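Regression test case RT-17, inverse folding.

Input:
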C-alpha cells in the first residue's frame, strides 16, 4: 500500500507548491542581493553569460525566455554597474555582444554566496540524504523544463 497520502485541493499540487515556494524564495534572494543593486533577473543574465560564450541581447532573451526589451533594460543596468560590456559585432553592426567583466564575475560570486547561504536556511530541517534527494528531484524537473540543472 502507498504510504504517501495525496494532499487535496490546489495547495496539494506540485505546481502550486513550487510556484508559491518559488515566489517566497525569490523574494528572500532578492533581499539578499539588493545591496549589490541587483535583482534576481540581473543574476540570471550574469549566470547565462558566465556559462556560455559572449551572447547577443537577442540570444540572451531566447535563452532566458523573456522579451528582448527586458534584456536591454537588464543589460543597461548591468553595464552601468560595470558588470558587463557591450560590443558591436563587426560582422553585424545591429548585433550587440555582451560579455562579463571582472566586476560582473565578482557580483556573480556574491550572488552565489547569497543563494548558498539561503539554501542552507531553506534545507536546514532536511537530513543529508533528504537534501541530496531533493536536489536530484529539482535537477530532474529543471532538466525536463529545459532549465540549467546545476550539474
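Golden output:
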Amino acid at each position: 500500500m502507498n504510504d504517501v497520502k495525496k494532499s487535496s485541493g490546489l495547495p496539494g499540487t506540485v505546481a502550486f507548491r513550487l510556484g508559491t515556494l518559488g515566489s517566497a524564495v525569490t523574494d528572500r534572494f532578492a533581499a539578499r542581493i539588493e545591496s549589490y543593486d541587483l535583482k534576481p533577473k540581473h543574476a540570471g543574465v550574469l549566470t547565462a553569460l558566465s556559462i556560455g560564450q559572449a551572447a547577443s541581447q537577442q540570444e540572451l532573451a531566447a535563452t532566458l525566455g523573456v522579451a528582448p526589451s527586458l534584456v536591454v533594460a537588464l543589460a543597461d543596468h548591468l553595464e552601468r554597474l560595470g558588470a558587463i560590456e557591450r560590443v558591436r559585432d563587426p560582422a553585424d553592426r545591429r548585433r550587440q555582444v555582451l560579455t562579463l567583466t571582472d566586476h560582473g564575475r565578482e557580483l556573480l560570486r556574491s550572488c552565489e554566496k547569497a543563494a548558498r547561504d539561503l539554501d542552507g536556511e531553506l534545507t536546514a530541517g532536511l537530513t543529508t540524504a533528504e537534501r541530496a534527494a531533493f536536489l536530484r528531484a529539482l535537477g530532474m524537473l529543471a532538466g525536463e523544463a529545459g532549465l540549467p540543472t546545476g550539474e
